[in-house]
Fold SAM-dependent methyltransferase.
Amino acid sequence: MIDWFQSPPGQYVLQWEQEQLDSVVADLFGFHALQLGLPELDALRANRMPFVVYAGDHTIDRSADWLPADHVTLQTALVSSYEELPFASQSIDLIVMPHVLEFSVDPHQVLREVERVLLPEGYVVITGFNPFSLWGLRQFGLRGILPPILPQAQQFIALPRIKDWLKLLSFEVQRGRFGCYRLPCRQAKWMGRATWLEPAGDRWWPVCGAVYLLTAVKRQRGMRMIGPAWKDKASKAQALAPALRTPQGQ
């Protein structure tokens, strides 16, 4: 996967996602932010939370150019499995997951872990490849005829399915966005000639973008205290008690 993001289509995807993430995370506030995977992308560089953690399945160079230098505290964590995150429950305000679910053996369990470590009203930002796009058509429909345009993943998950999973875990989807409408080409010169597809695709066939970005917030279902039933019955009986009428002449 790392090698793919060094290719022309990979660089194209990274550029689009970086621009979108900068816009989304800039307005999300809290104390602790976490990026899972994809060290080629600085998903939190525009965020202003003071404590940032990068968690990946391999070690990274602490002096790498992409690491955000303006944060107060930056930590890295080696995570062998995103299905078991080494963080305390309800300890993170923001989690960004660029292309994590589609490369996980159990993506639903990854979302369960995200729900566990997120604070109530915390945010999760997810990016992924859209299987219902021209890129997905080449990847699956033209398999055996043309070489794949996307990296080999466990499964490419459609956006409606992720929304259903989030809803089951008490997340509320805030907004979603599709992007990367250029033709699925492996050479930079051919991709450069298709720049006109960006505004056209965003206007006329937005759900056919090669990549999507989704933001959701963790909601905590409230509880309503209900008083004892006998108090309600007593109050109703007192309110409906008949008035006594005195005999005439007394």
Q: What stands out?
A: The chain has a mean pLDDT of 81.
